[in-house]
Amino acid sequence: MPTPIAIVGISAELPSGAYSKANLEHSSFFDFLLNGQESYECMPDGRFNVEAWKGKNRGEIRVNAGSFLKGIDLFDNVEFGISARDARTMAPATRKLIEQCFLALVDSGIDYRNRNVGCFTSGTNLELTNVAEPDEFDCEGSFAGYPSMVSNRVSTHLDLLGPSVPTDTACSSSLTALHLAVQSISNGECDAAVVAGCQLNHRFGRAEACVAIVVKPLQQAIQDADQIYATILATAINSSGGGAPPGAPVAEAQRDAMRRAFKLAERNPREVDFIELHATGTAKGDPTEVNWVGEEFSREDEVLIGSVKGNIGHTEIAAFLASLSKVISIFRSRQIPPNVNVKELNPAIQWLKYQLRVPRSPTPLPCHSARGPLIAMSSSGIGGSNGHAVLEGPPTRGSLDSRAEIMAAQPSLLVSAGLSSRSTVAFSESITNMATRSACEVPVLSTILGRRSRSMTWRSFAIADSASLGKLQFSSPQLCPREARPVVFVFSGQGPQHERMGRELFERFTVFRHSVLEMDRIYETLTGSSMLRDYGLFDGCGSPGKLKDVWPISLILPSIAMFQIALFDLLTSFGMKPDIIIGHSAGETAMLYASGAAPKEMAFELAVIRGRAFAPLEALGGGMAAISCGKEDAEEIIASVRSELPDNILEIACFNSPSAIAIAGHDIAITRALELCQTRGVFGRKIRTSVPMHSSMMERCREDYCRELRALFERYPGQHVPQIPTYSTLTGERLSDSIDADYFWRNTRSPVRFTQAMERLTASQSCTFVEISPHPVLVSYISSMAGDGSPVISTMHRVKPNMPSVDHVDLLRVCGELTASGFNGVNFTALNNRACYECDVSLPAYPFSKKSYALYPDTPGYAKQMEPHLGPLNHRYLRINKDTHPVLAEHVIRGEPIMPAAGFIEMAIEFGATALLHVDLKAILSLSSETPPAVEVELNSSYWKVQSVTSHDWHSGKQQKRLHADGYLTFEPSQPLKDIDIATIRQRCKNHVGSCTQFWGCMTGSILNGGFCTAFYSSLSYFSAYGPRLRRVTNVYYSEKEALVSIKGMDNALKQPFNGNYDQNAYYLPAHVDAVLLHRNLAEEQLPHHLYAHVVLKEWWPVAKHHIDPLPAVQRPLHLIYQPAFFAPQQPTPASLSCNDPLRIKLDTINCYVSWLACASVLGC
Question: Which residues form the Ketosynthase family 3 (KS3) domain (predicted)?
């Protein structure tokens, strides 16, 4: 069985439609599904000009709706350290992937920056880039738009060191990405991985989504107390091969992927409780998938199946991850949301045979295995890439222990972190508001925030208790280095001890208490007394009256070691493990244990031995002092004292810093030295001890002390070599040899070379120093030597009498300062005794400061899809042939579909002209070409022309063009037309052309009982063939001077080619006038040369005044009145017109009358 993989982080943006003003994130998406909602909506503004391009023909857009993400143009490039130019050059999907991968990693709380974390992503990079060519000025020097950048940019800006792999297997891309991530983790190529998919649409109505998850080995996730959303037992992928065309699903291939996955998972398909299908909703895809699923998963009871595509559509690249978001929530809630839009079951699916059921209301998740819920997920991509995943619910884990209730009432550390100083400050304000509202959740909030801070480059912290929740004081944000500084634990020597040290830690923290009690038992065995019982140390319940201002050395050294060792145990239990150890003087006792050179028992026994051996020296009248000067000045002071007091000892005991020295010797010499310091303006003070450590006076105890040391090392034989880098303050160098008894004699007798050790340590690196001490004594020395790039942190502080202890707050402060400095090792779960998964805490959204970036570069490609069209036949990207404009192609002359002459004039009128002048129709435009030629409709001042591109020389860039029509136009308001008495005209036009029958089929008893004039169009068949959609003439009445023509109004047949005008009740019907002018019978009747060329749409007919109920607008015939205009054909009459003949017709004037109901048509031939 492969390594089980846990999903430990997720972030999602899914379409919400009218359901919400914001995109759906992971949890709100499930509420959306449970409520049976849908996200389909009209295409948002700024994506694509649907109105200009909609239609059913080639080159047009069939749909105007889909599921869309809101605000995909918004991105905070500054937060991710991305230049504005790179942000512009990136595909929008890449920007969205960076954002969502970041949020998923933040949700996981794993330490991912500069770590071996893989990145497996898929995004719509190629399509969006190719549709709108990259801006050559913006993209120079940037690789942001390259296909590989879909994953590489995520790895770069999130600093991921593992494999970075973009995937594209169409609709199965995100499952393929997950499979590769699982394999990479199982093979040890990376420790964790982020898997993401982003689908952003272009042009047609698909669904958009961006989902990212974080995966890591299950056992590691349990060990790290991660939030575990689900467990991936196995994944499998394959290809359909050549068994079917690329677009056809293959059941056996899909089934094979499923069988591989279940074999790897070592589970039985009949244990599955729910199957999330790919289920694209296609006529072939659904039966293919569902029937093999039914066959493989069928059992005695029903098999539940479902999909999210009814709710949000097909998110393609992100389809699997969108479904995974649903599945994760099913595991959590034990509820299966309903499938929507299931109005009737597909009869091609064998529902009853396999007992398949699609939930249509929220349904409890069944459980067929004692191991817990099991869900299978299927995914397939067009082209034959199939995949399957087997998932199990998250493991059951309880709360940590009963002390969680105690911890809830105690202070908590809240870390605010972000990718910038701005976001860190903004987030701290959100945290303050949240903590005030939900005080009971603060410990869990502390754990979550602390874990998440590890992925941030800027950090600050505050300590919250019941009194300060509403006024949290966060520290100033700090920028963390990419490589964390080594943490150095510095164990101080004697001097900072006090009777209340560690008391609150002993009370509240089990690790500290157990460590102290363990060492106190050793102390009692060796001395016969107890530090707790006899001196009241740590628990405050003993006899503190025994302690005086200056403690005996036999108590000082063991108590300091006990505190330091117990604090070390506590800090390391919270993940604060040092990279380097230094012990100052007596601090090298704790150093022995902390470095791993000796067990705790040996180190503490050493402290007891030191105290016991040094006790006789307290009667010698010795002491120590600290003076603020360099070595040379100290030697001058010592020389002066020795000259005055030659019988007294005074020597340098410690080199604490280049400007700080400790001296040791007789008290009288110490006092005189401090007097000399005062006269010289040198600060000096006595150290609270009566033992002159590191001086020649220590020779008095050498024999006894060394004997006990040798005995100690004999009781604990073996090599005592530090297991982590340790710097000796005896030699000033790094310790590499085994520590022996002689080392600790020299440690006692020789001066402390702390300055030299620090210089050696900091010579080539910056570090974070933590002084392990009951009260700061070395912090100032360390700070003076470490430099500005090395934080120095004190642990505990001595408080004034009668003031409450601050040990717990100090501990949290240490954790906060370490974390803010860039240290990622603090175990916030242990610190708070609460895990991140123990209660639901809704965190504030990450405070991005986004700005809008264009979805496409400002290039011709973008202009083409966004530019409004002046009309169906007038725009810059017009291309025409029989496929793009099939209605116009029904205008056939001599077997050749050609553009009606009225179409050319239509193009000119769509500029908004009120009149056309000197129209010159020069050449026909054939519509029969396989590739539609580009047609240019241009206007220069008042001159317009229509020309097509006949050839393009790609080498020279030159185009050959043919001029089809030109003329002039005006936008001057036309004179209102006089009312026309149609009834009178009808009386004058006594001649009738054609025999019309069955007009509209619903006008029983009306004066018109016919449809198309059969005889009228049949008479044209000798040279022309009008398609059914262009047969608009229903009646023609004429006389010698005028004609009245009845033309069918707008209907669905003309809606597509003229949809730009249809919605405004305004339309152009260029074929109408053709039908009149080219009619043979009219020519034979020798109609006057002055034809009625000005067409006025006067009214609908029949109308109410005829006592006939009006028809719907799309079914009403139109009356068109022709008024005189000069018409002079310069070529053969229409009856002898050949498709190869040049057609040249000139019209002096065409007036264009527009009413509220409709637009005038135009004359054509």
Answer: 2-393
Catalytic residue list contains 891: yes
For residues 207 and 317, membership in a common domain is answered with: yes
Helix (H) or strand (E) holding 1152: none
Encoded tokens for 309: 């595509």
Beta bridge partners of 412: 464
pLDDT tens for residues 495-552?
A: 889 999 999 999 999 999 999 999 999 999 999 999 999 999 998 776 655 677 778 9
Nearest-angstrom CA–CA distance, 1139 and 1141? 6
The tokens describing 802, both together, are 């009668």
Who has greater pLDDT, 381 or 1071?
381
Same domain, 569 and 642: no
- Run of H or E residues at 1125: none
| Tokens 């910056």, located at residue | 766
CB distance 197 to 174 below 8 Å: yes
In DSSP terms, 199 is beta-bridged to: 209
pTM of the shown model: 0.83
User: Radius of gyration of the chain from Cα atoms?
Assistant: 44
922 in a structural domain? yes
- Residue 996, sorted as left (phi over 0), alpha (psi -120 to 50) or beta, turns out to be beta
Give the C-alpha separation, 405 to 923, whole Å. Answer: 91
Q: Report pLDDT digits (tens) over 68-126.
A: 999 999 999 999 999 998 888 888 899 999 999 999 999 999 999 999 999 999 987 54
Distance CA 587, CA 561 (A): 7
List the beta strands (DSSP E) in 643-755: 650-657, 660-666, 684-687, 726-727
Contact 294, 303 (CB under 8 A): yes
Give residue-wise pLDDT tens across range 395-445. Answer: 988 766 544 444 446 899 999 999 999 999 999 999 988 887 766 688 999
Mean confidence (pLDDT) of the chain: 83
Q: In whole angstroms, what is the distance from residue 522 CA to residue 602 CA?
A: 10
> What are the pLDDT digits (tens) for 46-61?
777 777 777 778 877 7
Of residues 891, 964, 1079, 1094, which has the active-site annotation?
A: 891
Nearest C-alpha neighbor of 891 from the set 880, 882, 883:
882
Q: Which amino acid is at 14?
A: L
Task: For residue 888, give the nearest of 836, 925, 840 by alpha carbon.
Answer: 925
CATH classification of the domain holding 498 = 3.40.366.10
The answer to whether the beta carbons of residues 906 and 891 sit under 8 Å apart is: no
Cβ atoms of residues 1118 and 1089 within 8 Å: no
Instruction: State residue 1133's pLDDT score.
Output: 35
Same domain, 639 and 778: no
Q: Where are the beta strands (DSSP E) in 971-1042?
A: 991-993, 996-998, 1010-1013, 1024-1026, 1033-1038
Among residues 694, 1074, 1079, 1094, the one annotated as catalytic is 1074
Residues 145, 94 share a domain: yes
Please give the Cα distance from 939 to 942 (Å, whole number).
Answer: 7
CA distance 634 to 623: 16
Average of per-residue pLDDT across 1118-1143: 33
Short-list 40, 475, 533, CA closest to 281: 40
Percentage of the chain modeled with pLDDT above 70? 80
Residue 534 lies in a domain: yes
For residue range 639-687, list pLDDT tens digits in order. 999 999 999 999 999 999 999 999 999 999 999 999 999 999 999 999 8
Same domain, yes or no: 120 and 216:
yes
**Looking at 180-329, which runs of residues are DSSP E strands?**
192-199, 209-217, 230-239, 274-276, 303-306
For 668, phi then psi, to 5°, come to -65, -35
Residue 1095, pLDDT above cutoff 90: no
| Mean pLDDT, residues 139-150 | 62
Would you call 246 helix, strand, or coil by DSSP? coil
Asked if residue 912 lies in contact with residue 906, where contact means CB atoms within 8 angstroms, the answer is: no
* Distance from C-alpha of 835 to C-alpha of 446, rounded to nearest angstrom: 10
| Tokens matching residue 555 | 């108590």
Provide the residue range defining the domain that includes 565.
487-612+760-790
